[in-house]
Predict the structure of Flagellar biosynthesis regulator FlhF.
Amino acid sequence: MNASLMAKTAYANPEQPLRTARDAEYEVFARITRRLRAAAGCAASDYPGLVGAVHDNRTLWARLNADVSLPENGLPQDLRSRIAYLAEFTRRHSQKVLHGTATADVLIEINTSVMRGLRREGEAK
């Protein structure tokens, strides 16, 4: 794509609101959760799909865990601790899902709760 076309595309809709970091986080959670939900629904017939979705979810939580462990992270310590706990829980539960001894339901529930929290915080602006 040439620079002129990229510029036109980037500025084609100036009325569209800018996305905040919170909006971007929500979109990542939503995309991964949709994929996880779809893969969980057909785990028996598409195990590689389940593995990919669980991997993406674990990667998301590992990145969140790394972020909240940074000293310069601005979140309150209590919230940082809860995110770290959920990241560890997600890592362990994901192993159970991949071994077939648990379902992905609780992972989907956790992500959905985080998405609700991101929306509530966004509404408080």
In short: The first helix runs from residue 3 to 10. Residues 22-123 form one domain. The chain has five helices and no strands. Residues 43 and 50 are 6 Å apart (CA to CA).
